[in-house]
Every structure is written in structure tokens, then in C-alpha cells.
Design a protein that fits this description.
Strand content: under 5%
Radius of gyration: 24 Å
Number of strands: 3
Helix content: 40-55%
Structural class: mainly alpha
Largest sheet: 3 strands, antiparallel
Strand order of the largest sheet: 1-2-3
Number of helices: 10
């Protein structure tokens, strides 16, 4: 058993003794378990990101969708719910920004990078219309006309909006093809977005706004990630930095 469990067992045991009247004072009343260490999220290196984004190859509609989806998630640091909830009207390719709907229905504007905008344009011009048209064809699952009224940006093969489960399958499938962890989730791209921005000199307040964090302390976890990467780079490169 871990130390935390042992502390919990002791406190439970002495509370029981006090309830039964066997003891008058609980010696564990001020006893606290060890503070849980904060588990830092996994992030991808720039090379790993490049490998992942290169996986959806070809001009097939789903490949165009997947490429745009991965590019946007890395470029904008979106949560899974925000990515699948995007609508056509949320994206302004002229201004290079999108509107994300975060927790508590809070909206925020996030810049879109050049590569992501190019992938989005191609998907919207060639991939998305084909997915919508597929919804009208018999035998592709779905009633004729299903999905035509959909305002969702990212569609499945039936012309309906992507589900969370569908998003996870897309991300994990391409991660596997890239030789990355099969357990990688859409949130890994969000963590990577934040870490790479900080490493590139983005200030913490701007990052907080782009991530949609209500509390700056939530954003500060990425400063630890950046510090760890700096230390790794230092100790691997400096001739007199052996630990």
C-alpha cells in the first residue's frame, strides 16, 4: 500500500475508535497524507509533431479532413470538445482566427497558423463538400439528405458532425502510424501547443487567453514543462554540465 493509503487507514481506524467511545482523543486528527506530486502532461517534440501531421496523406476527403483537423488542433490548442464543436461560421480564414467555445460556453478568439489555414482551405473546398455529398448516396449509412443542414466544420463519412469517439480514433490512428504512443489523445496536441509557444517566447498571460484558462495557475504547469526541456537541452549540450 502507498503511504497515502496507510494514512487514510489510520485515520479511519482512530475515527472508529472514537465513535465507539474507546478513546477520547483522535491522535490522527491533524495527520495529513503526503502531497500528491503534479503529473506533468506528455508533449510531442517538433519532429514528432511533423511526423504526426504528415500521416494523413493523399487527396481523399477523409485525408483532407484529418490533415486539417490535426493542423488546427496543434495550431490553436483546442480541447476535444472545442474541435468537434467548431462550425463553419467560427472560422475566419481572411483574418486568420477562429472562435472556440470553451468550458461554461465561454468564447475566445485564437489565431490560426499559416499551415493550418492552408489545410482548412483545401478541406473546405474539396474534402467537406465530398463528405456532405456522400451523405446523399444510398448505402453509405444515413438517410438521404442527412447532414446537408449540418453547420459543423469537421464531418464524418455520413456527413454528420464528428463525435468525441470519432476524434479520438482519428488522432490515435495517425499517432500509431507515425510510430508515436497509441495512447496519445487529442489533449496531447493541446499540451504540445502550449509548451511550444512558451518555448518560443510567448508570455504566460497570452497563453492563458489562447487556452481559455480561467485561472493563471492552470496555465503555469507549462512553465514546468518548458523548464524541463531547457534542462534536458542544457545537460545534453554543455561540455561541463554532467550531472
Amino acid at each position: 500500500a502507498t503511504l497515502g493509503r496507510k494514512v487514510a487507514c489510520l485515520r479511519s481506524f482512530y475515527r472508529h475508535l472514537r465513535r465507539e467511545g474507546i478513546i477520547e482523543h483522535d491522535p490522527t486528527s491533524e495527520l495529513r497524507g503526503p502531497r500528491k506530486s503534479q503529473r506533468l502532461p506528455r508533449v510531442l517534440s517538433r519532429d514528432e509533431v511533423a511526423r504526426l501531421l504528415a500521416q494523413p496523406a493523399g487527396t481523399e476527403p477523409r485525408a483532407l479532413r484529418d490533415r486539417a483537423l490535426l493542423e488546427v488542433m496543434y495550431a490553436c490548442g483546442l480541447r476535444a470538445s472545442e474541435a468537434i464543436g467548431l462550425e463553419l461560421s467560427d472560422v475566419d480564414l481572411e483574418e486568420g482566427v477562429l472562435r472556440a467555445r470553451g468550458k461554461g460556453s465561454k468564447e475566445r478568439l485564437v489565431p490560426i497558423g499559416r499551415q493550418a489555414m492552408a489545410a482548412l482551405r483545401t478541406y473546405c473546398q474539396r474534402g467537406r463538400p465530398a463528405l456532405l455529398a456522400g451523405a446523399l448516396k444510398p448505402g453509405i449509412g444515413g438517410t438521404a439528405g442527412r447532414g446537408v443542414e449540418s453547420a459543423r466544420l469537421f464531418l464524418n463519412r455520413r456527413g454528420s458532425g464528428l463525435t468525441r469517439q470519432g476524434l479520438y480514433k482519428i488522432v490515435q490512428g495517425h499517432a500509431r502510424s507515425a510510430g508515436l504512443e497509441a495512447k496519445m489523445s487529442p489533449h496531447t496536441l493541446r499540451h504540445t501547443f502550449a509548451t511550444h509557444l512558451l518555448a518560443g517566447g510567448c508570455d504566460l498571460r497570452s497563453l492563458q487567453e489562447m487556452l481559455g484558462h480561467a485561472d493563471l495557475s492552470t496555465t503555469q504547469v507549462y512553465t514546468h514543462l518548458s523548464a524541463e526541456r531547457l534542462k534536458d537541452a542544457y545537460f545534453s549540450a554543455h561540455p561541463r554540465a554532467s550531472r
